[in-house]
Amino acid sequence: MKYNLSYFSSADGIEIPVYEFVPNIPVVSSIVLLYEIFGVTEHIKELSHKLSEKGFLVNVPDIFSRLEKNVSLPYNEKGFNKGIKIKEKLGWDLPIMDIVSCASLLKKKYKVSVMGFCFGGSLAWRSVQKSFIFDNAICYYGSSISDFINNNLNCPTVVYFGNNDKSIPADSVEKVKQFSKKQNSPVKIFEYANADHGFNCEERKSYHADSAKLAMDRNFTFLKEL
Asked: Are β-strands 136-140 and 187-192 bridged in parallel, bridged antiparallel, or unpaired?
């Protein structure tokens, strides 16, 4: 698995590492991929590589690097607790600034999507509320999405939830559904009956192969609409 590790200057001048996965075929479009609270794990790298094989130029900005370099946490309670601490200390504004700064470089040549998982799913949702740079967004099981339903979405968006996900209760999902109906940009919300939080990640106990495949197939259909 090959990738390039480089740096870009965020809007405040801080240098942010970015993992770039370049297709071996003509580029279809680009994706800013946002990781879970576990950081740049092998799962995230493998997922980015698979997306690049489909023709997507994938950039993974290392948003945790403002506080700690090279964060890659295990998918267990210890890793979760540390990731939560980093997330809470980092806040929302700085990551979104870094995400938009990363996208602005890609936007010079390509259409740009944002795809996020867990913490990254909430960041993807928030990023398309706070900017107009993205052409579409894909948000996987972001537990904070329902906290951000006061600002419009500025591009077509897809959201995935698992019905067995206790971290995102049914009333939170319903809030997102009602909010989405009021948007000018199209929003599609998909729920997976047998899926839990993290159903896309093979390294987690909650991995659910059928839901993961169906969601990814939907992603490719959605991304081709650009």
From this structure: unpaired
Can you say how many angstroms the Cα of residue 151 is from the centroid of all Cα atoms in its chain? Answer: 19
Torsion, Cα of 168, 143, 201, 199 (10° steps):
20
Burial class (CB in 10 A: 0-12, 13-18, 19+), 93: exposed
pTM listed for this prediction: 0.97
Name residue, tokens 């259909």. 221
Going by C-alpha positions, the residue among 74, 52, 48, 51 that lies closest to residue 62 is 48
Instruction: In whole angstroms, give the CA distance from residue 194 to residue 78.
Output: 26
Q: Name which of 133, 184, 199, 124 is nearest 158 in CA terms.
A: 124
pLDDT digits (tens, 9 = 90+) for 1-41: 799 999 999 999 999 999 999 999 999 999 999 999 999 99
128-148 confidence digits (pLDDT tens):
999 999 999 999 999 999 999
In angstroms, the Cα distances linking 172 to 17, 77, 105, 107, 140 are 34, 24, 34, 33, 14
